């Protein structure tokens, strides 16, 4: 299966968000990645529920919503109602991760878990069969345009091994610093989905850039 691409609207032109979403609709992107930041879990604030709903109004691709927030359980239903088809919570923000995953699934969404660069994939062993998607942060969360962390390749291989050993169907998503140089190696390591923000939206021809990433 070819790699799936989830452009992150965090890097888009917020003043022309409808136009940016329509561009993604016309592209070969598989998902629209929506980064939610609260200024507490990460040192930045992006946007929340109303903007997610506005994006969904124009989107023809599934919304992949990444909650970089504390107390995500309080907002699961609101983001699902705003159009999220995948909801990813951070391992580091959940005291009762299994319960949170079940709550996401009960809402009819796919359940994702994001892990920060310092968090070991081994910590997911007991819940991997309940996770639809693991989002490995390949930069420190909070800001777009950061430098890719090289240790990510080993982390992806380790996670792929865990998924295979447990007989899970979990997809591996990479978020941060993804470009045409590291995409082939990420795919070889076992990645299924690449989140690309600045690399797509700062390109002269974003549609062509997405197509090129898809064809790797």
UniProtKB/TrEMBL annotation:
Tell me the enzyme class: isomerase
**Catalysed transformations (reactions):** D-ribulose 5-phosphate = D-xylulose 5-phosphate
Its GO biological process terms? pentose catabolic process; pentose-phosphate shunt
According to the UniProt entry, its GO molecular function terms are: D-ribulose-phosphate 3-epimerase activity; metal ion binding
> What cofactors are annotated for this protein?
Mn(2+); Zn(2+); Fe(2+); Co(2+)
**What Pfam families does the annotation carry?**
Ribul_P_3_epim
Does this entry carry the keyword Isomerase?
Answer: yes
Residues holding substrate: 8, 66, 142-145, 175-177, 197-198
Task: Give EC number(s), comma-separated.
Answer: 5.1.3.1
Its biological purpose is as follows:
Catalyzes the reversible epimerization of D-ribulose 5-phosphate to D-xylulose 5-phosphate.
- PANTHER family membership: RIBULOSE-5-PHOSPHATE-3-EPIMERASE
Protein name, entry field: Ribulose-phosphate 3-epimerase
Q: What is the lineage of its organism?
A: Bacteria, Pseudomonadati, Bacteroidota, Cytophagia, Cytophagales
The primary gene name is rpe
């Amino acid at each position: 299966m070819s790699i799936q691409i989830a452009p992150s609207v965090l890097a888009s032109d917020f003043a022309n968000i409808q136009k940016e979403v329509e561009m993604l609709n016309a592209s070969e992107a598989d998902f629209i990645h929506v980064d939610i930041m609260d200024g507490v879990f990460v040192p930045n604030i992006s946007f929340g529920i109303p903007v997610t709903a506005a994006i969904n109004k124009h989107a023809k691709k599934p919304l992949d919503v990444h909650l970089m927030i504390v107390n995500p359980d309080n907002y699961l239903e609101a983001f699902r109602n705003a159009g999220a088809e995948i909801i990813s919570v951070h391992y580091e923000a959940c005291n009762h991760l299994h319960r949170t995953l079940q709550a996401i699934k009960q809402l009819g969404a796919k359940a994702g878990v994001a892990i920060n660069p310092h968090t070991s994939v081994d910590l997911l062993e007991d819940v991997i069969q309940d996770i639809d998607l693991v989002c490995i942060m390949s930069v420190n969360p909070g800001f777009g345009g950061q430098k890719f962390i090289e240790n990510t390749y080993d982390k992806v291989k380790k996670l792929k091994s865990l998924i295979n050993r447990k007989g899970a169907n979990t997809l591996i998503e990479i978020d941060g610093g993804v470009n045409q140089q590291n995409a082939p190696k990420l795919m070889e390591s076992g990645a299924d989905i690449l989140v690309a923000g600045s690399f797509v939206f700062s390109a002269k021809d974003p549609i062509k850039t997405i197509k090129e990433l898809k064809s790797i």
